[in-house]
Each structure stands twice: as C-alpha cells, then as structure tokens.
Amino acid sequence: MKFSRAAKNIGFTLIEVIVTIFIIAVISGLIFANYHQSGQHIALQNSANILSQDLRRAQQMAMSVKDYSCSSGKLKGFGIWLSPGADVYSLRARCEISDGVYLDPDPVLENHDELKKNGVIISNLIPNQDPLKIFFYPPDPVIDIGGATDAMITLSLKNASMTKTVKINEIGLIEIQ
Q1: What is the DSSP string of 97-135?
Q2: What is the Cα–Cα distance from 66 to 151, expressed in whole angstroms?
C-alpha cells in the first residue's frame, strides 16, 4: 500500500507548537497586566463618585433643612471636612453660636473611610487648607469653601500615579475630571 506525501505530513511540528504556546503566553500576560491596572482605575473612579455623592448629600441635607439639634447655638448647614494626605473624610453639621461664630470643631455626623478601603488618598486640595471645609447653607444654597469661589479635590492611588479630581464651584456644580 502506497501513502501519498500529503498523508505523511499531517500534524504539527514541535516548533509550531512551541511558537503557538509562546504567542498565547504573551497575550495572556498582556491581558493580566491590564486587568490589574483597570482594577485600580475602577477603585479610583469609585472613590471619586462616592466623594461627589457625599458632597451632594451634604448639599441636599442643607437644602431640605434636615433636622439636627446643635448642643449649643442653631443649625447653620451641613458640609464635609477634608485633609490632604488623608484616606478618610467626615460629614459634619455647622452650628452657629452667635452671628458668624461657629461651634469649633463642627460636630461629626459620619466618618467616611471608603477611600481607605479602595487604597485612595486625598493627594491635593485647592484652596490649600487643612482641613478644607465645604459647607452648604439653606435656603439658596450658599456655599462656603473657606473663602474661595471653587475647590478642587484631587484623589490618587497610594501606590500609583493615577488621579481623579472632584471640582465644586460657588453655585454648587460638582463634577469629576
């Protein structure tokens, strides 16, 4: 029985198999490297979203004149305290003792540690104040950003150079860049 030449050459050579395995390994390595980086990007984006939601929540609490009884004085508004280099921030009430004089420090309603959970820190604040206090006063709402007209809160990963910036202006527009 005679075999044709084509019938004898069916299959793969060892070199073809090795090259195919190498190509699959390189593609898998690239996918896994990007997967880790995209996970960090998602954590940073999530932290920026949570911070902007908390700013909006403080704004909403001020607009709805949420019920809160100050230990001394009367309720003026609600806001957030942020410190550069920190991985936590706090939602606070502002109590006015007399005209333009506030209870110091402002009473803490909630501490938020979502930044810490995501491995994110507040890397920069504009205006550069420690702590930066952003408060909303009803009924308009009037926004107090420590005497400035707008604020930029830069968040970054503790172990990477990626950043996200949350901006708030004097009319209450909150945006993530």
Answers
A1: EETTEE-SSPPEEEEE-HHHHHTEEEEEEES--SSEEEE
A2: 24
Cα gap 109→90, rounded to integer Å:
7
Residue 50 has pLDDT above 60, yes or no: yes
Q: C-alpha distances in angstroms, 10 versus 13, 16, 38, 44?
A: 10, 13, 43, 53
Q: What are the tens digits of pLDDT across the range 134-176?
A: 999 888 778 899 888 999 999 998 877 889 999 999 888 899 9
111, 112, 119, 129: which is closest to 156 by C-alpha? 119
Q: State mean pLDDT over 33-58.
A: 85
Task: State yes or no: pLDDT of 55 exceeds 90.
Answer: yes
Closest CA to 146 of 165, 133, 163, 156: 133
* 74 Cβ contact list (under 8 Å, min separation 6): 95, 96
**Model confidence over 77-122: pLDDT tens digits?**
899 999 998 999 999 998 888 887 888 888 888 888 888 888 899 9
**Given CA atoms 171, 56, 89, 135 in this order, what sign does their dihedral have?**
positive
For residue 159, what is the DSSP state? Answer: T
The full set of domains in the chain, from first to last, is 30-176 (3.55.40)
